[in-house]
């Protein structure tokens, strides 16, 4: 199904990157993989499955596909997967630059809804999810001679599903092709034994010593501790940039703003005038993402506030100091509660070591762990693979779409506990259900808009100054719909689409809305509409002044596991499970407190917050999902 609607081709610039200067070429040649170049090439050529283990920053992602292209595989297609779209884009851009070609020419990338590659592309960076979808059309991935699964240690769900498929492919495909797994950690034995005949090769990194410091007492707030530590490093430590690990966009933006205001007055130990804060997280627009790789303006010290994306996926030069809060935001499925929790949880020891390692790439460094040594000792040794902790519905759907009827018999590195599920739309089953329900009541197009808006993280830009924040609040207020966040999001997308193409940039700026997020959303919306049409479903929309009740009902059908009812004290309880939740302050419903809501997800910070919600009427639940609610409402 997905293959009938390939991602939109992006308009590619015809400009090639200028050739690298000699000094830059020299620097590349100093990367550890260059020393191991011959061994790496031989390892890949003489084994069908080859596992390469090497420290982050040793050059695996950017150099190895290039080595292959420059040797035996010049005419062949090489594909390299990344668990995150940011990494696919950043690495493709970097390699195109190193090779002096244009992006989308010899080197390109493709991520969901954004394709910057052409038939000429020989080195293609993609997300592992995208390669999974390509496998729908071509289960043997015939067009690729070398398939590189990068960041295999991250064990994302898509990576794991891909590994299972590759193993099947290894049995069936008889031509000369090569599977390469790349990992930054040493637990490679596990994948190696998963693939019959696989060999492991080590790239010896040059790691400098990193001094690890712990706090004496447990910290009450890791955010306060992180800010204080960053300012202290700046005031006391010699030259070198700082990388601080936080858990998400809101925290990162907040600390960047704080440093921007307070850092101005702190003189650095080496006479730097001020700190130069930079943010990096998955939802950040590409232009801003590029800033983490740039050197800080003269006389400043760069401090990067990052999510775990900077652990291994992106290699950032110039770092000497790491601030490790010891936490990460992770999605996990609570089958007992029936909800997906996005929770801030302690990292594993392996992650803590990866974070520390970031400080010692170029010179000796220091890591400030914002937790005690005793707390470190209590951490799990490694992170649980995603496949063992999330709602497996989408993975199961993908596998079914790939023509694997019995997912239970599928070969996984770590076999998951499997629910039995089916659907025909390549979206989360909850969203598929919303779309189908809406199609039955004349508002599928609106539902597609809502699902598209739910797929992009942040549409409103909060702004840096008080004045910008005011403007942003006012803009949100203009679009606010009393039924909740979904219907509000629909109003935003409708207004965007009603604006003439040439005026959309200006419209976004006026309304404090991210133009990039809206463009992405627009592309997803178009694709969803295409899919619905291909399924011969009526693509209809409600009139501008029509009551959105059919949509609220459709949302109820899809999100019923996340239906919550207001309690006399003003908090909410999830109906099926009795779990207590509060309305997230970012919701348009945070002031109005309707009797009953359905919500997209639960965010766990200091309390359980429901996020992105819609008000509904209690009788709809038994009417629309009787099998589930007759039991729970009666209770
Ligand atoms: O994959 P691995 O972690 O082994 O290394 P890499 O990502 O290929 O990075 C190799 C070198 O390229 C690093 O030293 C980075 O500083 C540099 N690099 C960069 O400057 N900009 C990028 N977008 C990616 C890598
Ligand atoms: Mg890499």
Automatic annotation (TrEMBL):
Enzyme class: hydrolase
Catalysed transformations (reactions): ATP + H2O = ADP + phosphate + H(+)
Record keywords, A-Z: ATP-binding, Helicase, Hydrolase, Nucleotide-binding
Keyword tRNA-binding: no
Domain Helicase ATP-binding as annotated: residue spans: 41-204
Pfam families: DEAD, HA2_C, Helicase_C, OB_NTP_bind
Similarity-based family: Belongs to the DEAD box helicase family. DEAH subfamily.
Residue span, Helicase C-terminal domain: 222-403
Entry annotated with the keyword ATP-binding: yes
Example GO molecular function: hydrolase activity
UniProt-recorded name of the protein: RNA helicase
GO cellular component, one term: nucleolus
Gene Ontology annotations of biological process type: positive regulation of transcription by RNA polymerase I
EC number: 3.6.4.13
Superkingdom of the source species: Eukaryota
